[in-house]
Design goal:
Layout: E1 2-5, E2 20-23, E3 33-42, H1 48-58, E4 62-67, E5 72-78, H2 80-92, E6 99-108, E7 116-118, E8 129-130, H3 139-145, H4 189-195, E9 217-221, E10 224-227, H5 228-240, E11 245-248, E12 253-258, H6 262-272, E13 280-283, H7 286-292, H8 297-303, E14 311-314, E15 331-336, H9 340-348, E16 356-360, E17 367-371, E18 422-423
Parallel strand pairs: 4-7, 11-17, 13-15
Antiparallel strand pairs: 1-2, 3-5, 3-6, 4-5, 8-18, 9-10, 9-17, 11-12, 12-16, 13-16, 14-15
Length: about 425
């Protein structure tokens, strides 16, 4: 039997979510009970299992958590009050990338678990689950990226459970490394240690890697081939010389040029046969964005959000931009760097005051900054021809803000408990 209780409102709970059933707790404070908990929503690829592990350990509960095709399943044992607290904290303390649609609980017979574990995923059960979108580089990974003492210093594929690719590397659900394109890269002993350490933020991070065991970066420019940091520096030199460089991002390639170089931007337009559609400009920080256009608190909030969307700013008349970036318009689309590679490349060209203009996709351009990490071949709406010039008002925008356009980290963003793309077994 279940007792209906209100769920707390919070950032991970949709306002219209139905009330859930929870078991009736025993009146004995020292009684040991067991609950079977099934959680649905965006709960895979967002650090949810490590969160559940830490939460259960903190409440002195035992049992296990696993991914399933349509949910995350938890079997948990302990004191009734601790079990109630556990379920409530699933709603109120879940990781920031989580979106909970429902949490269903029922009483089961205790099995006498002695600890709490993350166990092997269940793939046999049918079901469907919304796929997590790719996520921009988090602040802690950014700090490590530019820390000379860190073992991932200048590693262009640094990630953790709070950031990095999901949608573009997932091949099937439930989400585990062996069902993603990262299965091609066996973790080195140090990465494996992080992966299996509950207190580490890379605990069960499916994209975890380092320079010793992860994907490799290289630049191809005619007969020249550079690798690693030299590839980044060579690409920066090409951009400074007015060349077009195809830079591999999340789910596709950006065609990049110096956004202050009128000749370079015009050449990009001719080759893309894109006469007037505005190009996006990528910069490293809010400070750099504010030099190009008007950045008020609402724009700053959107620019620095987890999705890192392209945001329309009122263009400054004295902005150091080629007129052909957004010809005939008094606005400019600006996006902050969202992958480690973007940050490294922009840092390498920092001696020049010019940001870079980007578009996506292309044919043979002759200069490719790419890597060995495969993607699934899916593209977000923003990376297809259909969406290349469609700018829409974002639902989080205030009147007069301008708007955001659908972008790679918004896809497949859940809306009202549903997702634009569902993964099946």
């Amino acid at each position: 039997m279940g007792l209906r209780v209100p769920r707390p409102r919070g950032p991970n709970r949709p306002d219209a979510a139905p009330l859930g059933d929870v078991p009736v707790a025993s009146g004995r404070k020292d009684a040991q009970e067991a609950w079977d908990v099934r959680v649905k929503g965006v709960v895979q690829g967002v650090g949810f299992r490590p969160f559940v592990h830490r939460l259960a350990a903190g409440l002195h509960l035992t049992g296990w958590v696993r991914n399933e095709t349509g949910a995350v399943r938890i079997e948990v044992e302990g004191r009734p009050q601790n079990l109630s607290d556990f379920v409530e904290r699933l709603w109120t303390q879940a990781p920031p990338l989580t979106r909970l649609d429902s949490v269903e609980s029922r009483a089961v017979s205790p099995k006498g678990h002695t600890d709490f574990k993350v166990v092997t995923s269940e793939t046999a059960a049918p079901g469907r689950l919304p796929v997590s979108p790719d996520v921009a580089l988090c602040a802690r990974c950014y700090d490590e990226l530019f820390d000379p003492a860190d073992r991932r210093y200048r590693y262009p594929f640094i990630t953790c459970t709070d950031c990095g690719p999901r949608f573009t590397v997932i091949e099937s659900m439930p989400y585990d490394r062996e069902r993603s394109t990262m299965r091609a890269f066996a973790q080195c002993p140090e990465c494996a240690r992080e992966y299996h350490t509950p207190s580490d933020r890379r605990y069960h991070s499916q994209t975890n890697s380092c320079p010793e065991c992860g994907p490799k970066l290289w630049l191809e420019a005619g007969d020249m081939r550079s690798e690693g940091q030299r590839a980044v520096e060579a690409a920066a030199a090409l951009l400074a010389a007015g060349q077009i460089v195809a830079v591999r991002g999340l789910g596709g390639f950006h065609l990049a040029v110096d956004a202050a170089d009128e000749d370079a931007v015009s050449r990009l337009r001719r080759r893309k046969q894109r006469e007037a559609k505005p190009l996006a400009v990528m910069v490293r920080s809010i400070d750099e964005a504010s030099r190009l256009g008007l950045v008020r608190p609402p724009e700053a909030e959107l620019l620095t959000s987890l999705e890192r969307p392209i945001v329309l700013l009122g263009r400054h008349r004295d902005a150091s931009l080629a007129e052909s970036v957004s010809p005939g318009l008094d606005t400019v689309g600006v996006v902050l760097a969202y992958t480690p590679l973007h940050h490294l490349l922009l840092e390498a060209v920092a001696t020049s005051p010019s940001p870079r203009a980007t578009t996506r996709h292309g044919t043979a351009w002759g200069r490719w900054l790419t890597h060995s990490c495969s993607t699934t071949g899916r593209s977000s709406p923003a990376t297809t021809t259909r969406w290349s010039s469609r700018w829409t008002a974002g639902r989080s925008c205030s009147v007069g803000l301008g708007g955001t356009r659908p972008f790679r980290c918004h896809c497949p963003k859940p809306r009202l408990g549903r997702s634009w793309l569902w993964a099946r077994t």
